[in-house]
Amino acid sequence: xxxxxxxxxxxxxxxxxxxxxxxxxxxxxxxxxxxxxxxxxxxxxxxxxxxxxxxxxxxxxxxxxxxxxxxxxxxxxxxxxxxxxxxxxxxxxxxxxxxxxxxxxxxxxxxxxxxxxxxxxxxxxxxxxxxxxxxxxxxxxxxxxxxxxxxxxxxxxxxxxxxxxxxxxxxxxxxxxxxxxxxxxxxxxxxxxxxxxxxx
Length: 200
Description:
A hairpin with a 2-residue loop joins strand 4 (60-64) and strand 5. By secondary structure, the protein is an alpha+beta fold. The strands form three sheets. It has a six-stranded mixed barrel. It has a four-stranded mixed sheet with strand order 10-7-9-12. The chain has a three-stranded antiparallel sheet with strand order 8-13-11, with no helix packed on it. The protein contains five helices and 13 strands. The model has no long low-confidence stretch (mean pLDDT 90).
């Protein structure tokens, strides 16, 4: 994905306010061997880009002064109640150095799992994103979590999923729970009553 940025020379809250009033968002690029650079971006283009999942977890081509550099979105601040992006941070990326990033989890095949089809279970997502480490070229847009073999009462953990080549989960030694298949209490009681009725 491509991002077009403009140089920003004026600093301070007054300058940032004027920038926002003119339809732009202040930002910064940092990291690598170069000094941090203050930038401005078109607010509407940035606002729409932030709605795309890929913008948060992909290497972005940021164009500034006719030169393109690779960056990651690191942070952004939104106004408390207006649809307004107040500030955005990008980090430069080095193709030879691993990056550490949160990547969205896409849960698939819940409806065909034994847990749902046979057990009447409800699958709850415990986590919606996962911390990963990899080289920039290997950074996935999202990670798929296949729930097709999940049984009622089971949970699925980080160690149960296949990560893309070159990608490792940053879990600090924990086998984190991603999803749980639990049978609603009412369904368990109804099943027990049905069993009891059969015995009579």
